[in-house]
Recover the amino acids of this structure.
């Protein structure tokens, strides 16, 4: 992360990173998302397995290790959490060096992955705005003597272009530093003053602090928007997936065996000897 990127991330609370993924990485990830969408669609026909402490109902594929909520239909979103378990094609995102250079620059303690979700947003769908202003400490943004010091941050990876009107991820820049909660009624991102849609190309990524006010503009196109979201924070932060909120990371033994020691450490939410 260079000095200009650090300055902009501190000033705005997000960064659009062009071509963080190669064309062949994009191709492999897009195929894996499509395959998992089909499996999750079938899984959603089954009875509910778990109701999250935050409300949504989930189906759990214990063999493939993912949780899914939502629906494959116009106006809806399907969210598939813990997708790392489901397909080795996603392994390249675990300890992805181009990503880790950004994460290490803004999370001061040893970073781990605390969130993994595929968002599939069908035409007509939007993601309501949330956060910004004074927020719970686990999502806090701060600047200390060591520089930028984030709690939870997210990297969103794009496997196809998302242009204006195609359900862009959106932010109200600089609200990670706001001392007040948004005074505007409702959570419609299309109507919120100051909301900015961020158009991107396949292979681009967006890094943001969870402290920033954000959401997803209405997808007014016929293209379903598919993105991969990976959350990071200090190692002691437990899962921030909605299905497994504040539980230990949900990584199957069969997933762990595929990983290098460095990749495994990214799911280790207890101190190492160095941290004790
Ligand atoms: O991309 C979107 O539609 C919203 C994503 C979001 O809210 C998040 O990643 O926290």
């Amino acid at each position: 992360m260079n000095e200009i990127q650090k300055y902009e991330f501190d000033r705005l609370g997000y960064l659009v990173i062009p071509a963080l993924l190669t064309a062949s990485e994009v191709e492999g990830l897009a195929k894996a998302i499509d395959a998992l969408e089909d499996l999750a669609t079938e899984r959603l026909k089954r009875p509910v397995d778990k109701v999250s402490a935050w409300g949504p109902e989930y189906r759990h594929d214990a063999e493939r290790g993912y949780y899914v909520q939502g629906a494959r239909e116009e106006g809806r979103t399907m969210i598939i959490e813990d997708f790392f378990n489901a397909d080795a094609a996603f392994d390249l995102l675990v300890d992805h060096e181009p990503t880790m250079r950004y994460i290490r620059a803004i999370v001061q303690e040893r970073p781990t992955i605390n969130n993994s979700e595929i968002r599939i947003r069908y035409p007509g769908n939007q993601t309501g705005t949330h956060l910004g202003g004074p927020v719970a400490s686990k999502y806090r943004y701060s600047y200390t003597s060591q520089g930028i010091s984030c709690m939870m941050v997210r990297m969103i990876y794009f496997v196809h272009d998302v242009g204006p009107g195609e359900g862009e991820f959106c932010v109200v820049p600089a609200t990670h530093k706001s001392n007040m909660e948004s005074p505007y009624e409702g959570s419609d991102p299309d109507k919120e003053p100051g909301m900015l849609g961020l158009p991107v190309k396949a292979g681009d990524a967006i890094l943001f602090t969870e402290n920033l006010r954000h959401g997803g503009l209405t997808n007014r196109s016929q293209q379903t928007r598919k993105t991969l979201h990976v959350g990071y924070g200090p190692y002691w932060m437990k899962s921030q997936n909605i299905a497994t909120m504040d539980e230990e990371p949900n990584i199957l033994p069969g997933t762990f065996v595929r990983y290098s020691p460095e990749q495994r450490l990214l799911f280790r939410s207890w101190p190492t000897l160095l941290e004790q």
Notes: DSSP finds five helices and 15 strands in the chain. The mean pLDDT is 95.
